[in-house]
Amino acid sequence: MTQKALGEALELKGDCQARIAQYEMGFRTPKRDVLEKMAQVLDVCIYALDTEPEGFFTQLIELLFWADTEDPHLMSLSTAHPDGEPYNSIQAFKIEYSDNDNWLLHDPTMLWFQNTFMDDYLKEWEVRKRELREKTITLEEYTEWKLQWPYSCNGCGKYKTQKQWRVLRKDTSNKENR
């Protein structure tokens, strides 16, 4: 969609193409109602456009999504599982990875959150990245999932998404978006 077409769809007064360009360059900031209408016209979640997202974790996930868009191989996600060892008063963690090709220059540093929301978001993101890697979803579907986030989330199959992001195929057995 061109800047002019977007400006016209938003019913902006004056030079609507220049106004959209100013929004894109950060010279002007659209008011909330314009931002909501823009998200509707572009069919994306408002969080993908909002410069002041609701809450720290939303902002952090959006930042990680854009880093992933710029360099898809920059980050890897993995779920840690308990090793069965008894937990003692010393906080210790052991995280291992398979280094079958010696592809890392050094041991990676792991980061995790003690926050249910962030953990749930990252788990679902891990699933989507794995689906992309295994080619069960396309790059376009993966991008759409990120653009519609958090409305595209389904709790890793626990509930129905609020926003359709998968391309429905006749031969699919996927039950996530039904």
Automatic annotation (TrEMBL):
<dbReference type="InterPro" id="IPR010982">
    <property type="entry name" value="Lambda_DNA-bd_dom_sf"/>
</dbReference>
<protein>
    <submittedName>
        <fullName>Uncharacterized protein</fullName>
    </submittedName>
</protein>
<dbReference type="InterPro" id="IPR001387">
    <property type="entry name" value="Cro/C1-type_HTH"/>
</dbReference>
<dbReference type="GO" id="GO:0003677">
    <property type="term" value="F:DNA binding"/>
</dbReference>
